[in-house]
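Collaborator request, handled under Task 6.
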Amino acid sequence: MAARPIMIQGTMSNAGKSWLCAGLCRIFREDGYSVAPFKSQNMALNSFITEDGLEMGRAQAVQAGACGIAPSVLMNPILLKPTTDMGSQVIVRGVPVGNMEAREYFRQKKSYLPVIKESYDALAAKHDIIVIEGAGSPAEINLRQDDIVNMGLAELVDAPVLLVGDIDRGGVFAQLLGTVLLLEPEEQERIRGLIINKFRGDPEILRPGLSMLEERVGKPVLGVVPWMNAAIEEEDSLSAQLLERSVHAPIDAAVIRLPKISNYTDFQMLEAEELLSVRYVSSARELGNPDLVILPGTKSTIADLLWLRESGLEGKILRLHSAGVPVFGICGGYQMLGEEISDPEGYEGGGTVRGLGLLPLVTVFEPEKCRTQSRGKTVLASHPELSGKAVSGYQIHMGRTFLRKGSSCGTFSALLSGAAEEADGAVSGNVFGTYLHGVFDEAEFRAAFVRYLAAKKGIDPQEAGSVSYEEFREEQYRILARGLRGSLDLPAVYRILGL
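Structure tokens returned to the collaborator:
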């Protein structure tokens, strides 16, 4: 029997759809069902590489973890990675098919419906329940005609819909009522219940408003979900994780919030460390005088490097480096640390630009994107306290990076992938660079690196790195599931599913 679907749609982006889906996935799994996530079209710079080297949205990989199954591109057949304000790289079933301007993509996106339906049907044949995530809002009436991700998809797979509003951003009653009223009658019929998300306080004070909302919309409110401190990885550029935070721990780590920042979930486990405060900064003033500077991944390395230069952040980072502050680059941030980046085929506009010059590297963009999971050990001869530590994660990048001939720069790790002449990571003094997303997820390396930072500041590092990524992630899933069990009408949800 094919799986029973249920779809979570939102009144806006960042209403909490991704982690509500993750929570429902975990609840259904705990209740004995085989469950899988699905999102037909995802627009995000946070992506994931599967075991077979295919690229998908990070949110569905996280939801797969909640289901206790391996991520698959069937869960996210279409991924859009914005390259400019007007265009994106289009990835179909894990493989890039090219860059498209928005108008071009909208003209042909319905041609991807067979891929979407085939992917969904393949999942539905293997599982009891499919938890589907919408995108943005179904009330974006300018996009309704060719919709393949909200009500268009719900109709295609005959899925009932739960509509979620974000009370933390204000006007939740108007959000929910207005969204429903902008839908066609047959679309309104698909909505089987409303959920108010991210509430802080006593839900009883909402009771009069809930009754009025139910009366006007003609739909039941299935729950008021409280604000929860569950560190579930998000995909949205509006994520609260990217807001600058005040320093509240002995070691101050500053992540540069590049305009096209990607895979900022790389730093979630650093945020879990008691000795570290992780904050995201966009100006030299915000950067201040941290104990660690991190250059994260980016979808537009050259453009973001030029922004770094024009904003004054490059000069500030170079001064901090000269003062002995460690600088750590991942993926695009690693490429920026080199001497130059060359784009002979024009994938990012063409030409050659000067890097920060902190590592003796040259990066050349080539047409083939590296997409692979990697595992190995650090090889840091100049930092024996960090060497020989297990690291694992995935690589996803367009460029190939080479050490300058005759360089005394050391490699960062001995990974089980990549050509021998390429440098998939390097270290020189207090500068570290790697292509490996998830490098801080391994407790062994993360603990050693925190101890290294603590020693530089004269802090006792005995508490560093006590929790594994797997233990941490499982606890976050449990927190989320408990919160939803206590706030949602789950019997009603199961009735909607027909179970």
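The cover message to the collaborator said: "The radius of gyration is 23 Å. The CA atoms of residues 185 and 191 lie 10 Å apart. Please let us know whether this matches your experimental observations."
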